[in-house]
TrEMBL record:
Protein name listed in UniProt: ABC transporter, substrate-binding protein, family 3
GO MF terms, alphabetically ordered: ligand-gated monoatomic ion channel activity
A GO-annotated cellular component: membrane
Coiled coil (UniProt feature): none
Source organism (scientific name): Megasphaera hutchinsoni
Length: 275
C-alpha cells in the first residue's frame, strides 16, 4: 500500500473516532440538561412563601406577633394536602419579583394581583379571589367622587396593584397634587386618619377590612379604577409546583374550604370558582 493511501486510511480512522467521541460527549451533556430540567420541574422538599406581613386581612401580625390572615390559612390548608412544609418570610414587597427570581422565596402569596406586567416575569396560579380598587376618604371629607381629588394628595402602597391602577388611569393621576407612597397600607390609613393626606387608593379586601375595624371613620367615594383577581406568584420554570398548587386550589374551591375562609376573614364569600 502506498504511503498516500495509508495516510488517508489513518486520517479516516481518526475522523471516525472524533465523531464517536463528540457524540458521546453530546449525549452526556444532553443527559445532564435533561436531569437539570427534571430537578427544576420536580416538587420541592419545602416551600418558602414571601409576603408583606402588614396586609390585613390577607397576611398580617396579630397582637401576639403571629402571622394570621386569609392567605396564611389558605397556605396552611395547601400545606396539609400536598404534604410539603411551608414557611413564611417577610420581604420588601416593592422588590418581590427579584426575591422570587433570586430564590430567596419560592412563592409570592399575599393578595397578589394578576397583572399583564407581572405575567411577563413570573408565573401565576389560577385566580382564586376577586378584588378591585377603592378610593377612600375620611368620613368628614367634602370629597364625593374621584373628580374631587384634583390637586389633592392620595396615599397608596409602593409596589402594589394600586400603583398599576394609577398608571392605567393617567388623566386621574395627572389631576392629583401628589401621590404619596408608603411601605404598607396601614401607615397610609394612619396618615389619612390624621389628615396628612386626602385619600387612600387601596385594594378592596384591605380597604373594607380596615374600614370595618375603624367603623364610621372612613367612606368609599369611588370603585371605578379597576376590577382585579388575586393569584399566587411562582417562577416560570416551576411548572410542576404550579400545576400541583392549581390542583389543590380547585379542591379547596370545590369542597367549600376557600369560601369558609373568606367568610371568616371578610364576612362574605368573594372567592372565585377555581376550574
Amino acid at each position: 500500500m502506498s504511503i498516500e493511501k495509508e495516510g488517508a486510511r489513518n486520517m479516516k480512522g481518526i475522523w471516525k473516532k472524533g465523531i464517536a467521541i463528540g457524540l458521546a460527549i453530546g449525549c452526556l451533556l444532553m443527559a445532564g440538561c435533561g436531569h437539570k430540567s427534571d430537578v427544576q420541574n420536580a416538587l420541592p422538599d419545602k416551600i418558602i412563601i414571601g409576603l408583606d406581613d402588614n396586609f390585613p386581612p390577607m397576611g398580617f401580625r396579630d397582637n401576639n406577633g403571629d402571622l394570621v390572615g386569609f392567605d396564611i390559612d389558605l397556605a396552611r390548608e395547601v400545606e396539609k394536602r400536598i404534604g410539603i412544609p411551608v414557611s413564611f418570610q417577610t420581604i420588601d414587597w416593592d422588590s418581590k419579583e427579584a426575591a422570587l427570581k433570586s430564590g430567596q422565596v419560592d412563592m409570592l402569596w399575599n393578595g397578589l394581583t394578576i397583572t399583564p406586567e407581572r405575567e411577563k416575569v413570573i408565573a401565576f396560579s389560577k385566580p382564586y379571589m376577586k378584588n378591585d380598587q377603592l378610593l377612600i376618604v375620611r368620613a368628614s371629607s367634602n370629597i364625593q367622587n374621584k373628580d374631587g381629588f384634583k390637586g389633592k394628595v392620595i396615599g397608596t402602597q409602593e409596589g402594589s396593584s394600586s400603583i398599576d391602577a394609577l398608571n392605567r388611569h393617567t388623566a386621574f393621576q395627572q389631576s392629583l397634587g401628589e401621590v404619596k407612597k408608603y411601605g404598607d397600607f396601614v401607615n397610609a390609613f394612619m396618615d389619612l386618619q390624621l389628615g396628612r393626606i386626602d385619600g387612600v387608593l387601596v385594594d378592596s379586601v384591605v380597604g373594607r377590612y380596615y374600614m370595618e375595624k375603624k367603623a364610621g371613620q372612613f367612606r368609599v367615594v369611588d370603585t371605578s379604577l379597576g376590577e382585579e383577581t388575586f393569584g399566587i406568584g411562582m417562577r416560570k420554570e416551576d411548572t410542576a409546583l404550579c400545576n400541583k398548587i392549581n390542583q389543590v386550589l380547585k379542591e379547596l374551591s370545590d369542597d367549600g374550604t376557600m369560601a369558609a375562609l373568606s367568610q371568616k376573614w371578610l364576612g362574605e364569600d368573594i372567592t372565585l370558582k377555581v376550574k
